Amino acid sequence: MTRQPWRVAVVGGGIAGLAAAVRLRDRAPSGTEITVYEQSGALGGKLRTGELAGQPVELGAESFLMRDPTGAESAAVALARRLGLAEKIVHPTVGQAALVVDGGLRPIPGGTLVGVPGDLDRVATVARPAADADTDGGRPLVGPDADVSVGALVRSRFGDEVVERLVDPMLGGVYAGRADDLSLVTTMPALARAARVEHTLVGAVRAAQAAAPRAPGAPVFGTLAGGLSTLVEAAVTASGATVRRDAAVRELTATGTGWRLTVGPTREPEFVDVDAVVLAVPARPAARLLAGPAPTVAAGVGELDYASVALVTMALPQPRLPELSGFLVPSTEGLLIKAATFFTTKWGHLRRPDGLAVVRASVGRYGEEAQLQRPDADLAATVHRELSAVLGTPLPAPVDGHVQRWGGALPQYAPGHADRLAAARTALRAAHPTLALAGAGYDGVGIPVCVRSGETAAEEIITALGGSAR
């Protein structure tokens, strides 16, 4: 008896779902039918390239890490290479960023791990570490199975100023969250591993840095000339998947041989039977879909909260900008802006001979969503005014602009997230091995992490269905 080709549904057309689709195409048996269901009309999730003043501009994620924690090339670089885009990878030409301290700009000191210093003297220009707090107590900083908030650990060792002026803005730039709320294990896994051995936080930072050495001069970040949407488009093509846009999957039902998807509007639902599902959507919609077949898993997954942000991008004619990639803003500064990037300074391939500069500011911190209720024009005007104040010079009026709102975009990983996720996945594999989770809500933010998450989910599906034929 000849086995019919596998039918696999990928629910969610962000980069995690698309990476899963590519991996399925590469490793699953020939003839496997892959369908990507995307609730919105756009693929790529937070990877979205638009246009401003006649040139490409990122409206979501801006770049990716070039290396993974082991020092090998990151999953994003490997995917770009697989898709024939390696030659399009470009790197920042200006890497120095600044912090806003007392209303002015000060260079971010080197030698930190996401703001946590490995040399207290180097951070003295922006924050005063607590004197003699980081003492050797004769035991590791963190227990073997424990997780704490980043803020709690750093405050206990270096004091409030290091958290508020360094760690909080660095984490806030990535997660739009607070160091006091975010899991050490999930947001800073290398430091968490070192903290289970080292007796001081300085020692843990240095150990974590030594465990992932970087070649001098090697670029940390990369992006794609032409924009990150080229990665999305190439992944769709390589996957050979059938793509269903504006196709909301409203229900998952386990059948005797796989899964039934209920797709589309309530009045005219479409029922689709498949052998396996990669669920690559944020935690809350995933929890709704899991509520029927795996209610206990749904409850655990659904605990995750998210922050919303807005990205305000402006094209400014010949502004006077510092030679910086951008700056971060501690919440104690009282500004709406939490970060800004000088795109045409940071990325040499975007510089224009006419001097037009593209500047993007990020607005919105976790717990302050009311600030995002302002109209676009109000947000843009406030950003323009605050940028002028921080730079100490009035900026020219923009010739073009865009406000991109990302509702519920950034996961807020509370301490214990990794354990909760591990328990959920263990239960899911035991009860439903042909259903796998992928995406930022589970494994962490950043393009490489999401790519790896999607690829891992695809491998799990292939194993559950009987293994690769390649």
**Morphology:** globular
Q: In which range does the helix fraction lie?
A: 25-40%
User: What is the typical, i.e. mean, pLDDT?
Assistant: 94
Head-to-tail CA distance between termini:
21 Å
The secondary structure category is: alpha+beta
- Segments where pLDDT lies below 50 for 5+ residues? none
Q: What does the largest sheet look like? A: 7 strands, mixed
Report Rg. Answer: 23 Å
- Could you give the count of β-strands? 22
As laid out across the biggest beta sheet, the strand order is 8-7-18-19-20-17-21
Number of helices: 15
Strand content: 15-25%
Features:
single chain, 5-stranded parallel sheet, 32% helix, alpha+beta, globular, 15 helices, 470 residues
Description:
This protein is of the alpha+beta class and 470 residues long. 32% of the residues lie in helices and 23% in strands. The chain is built from 15 helices and 22 strands. The strands form six sheets. A seven-stranded mixed sheet has the order 8-7-18-19-20-17-21. Strands 12-2-1-16-22 form a five-stranded parallel sheet. Helix 1 packs across helix 15 and helix 3 runs antiparallel to helix 4. The radius of gyration is 23 Å and the shape is globular. The two termini are 21 Å apart. The mean pLDDT is 94.
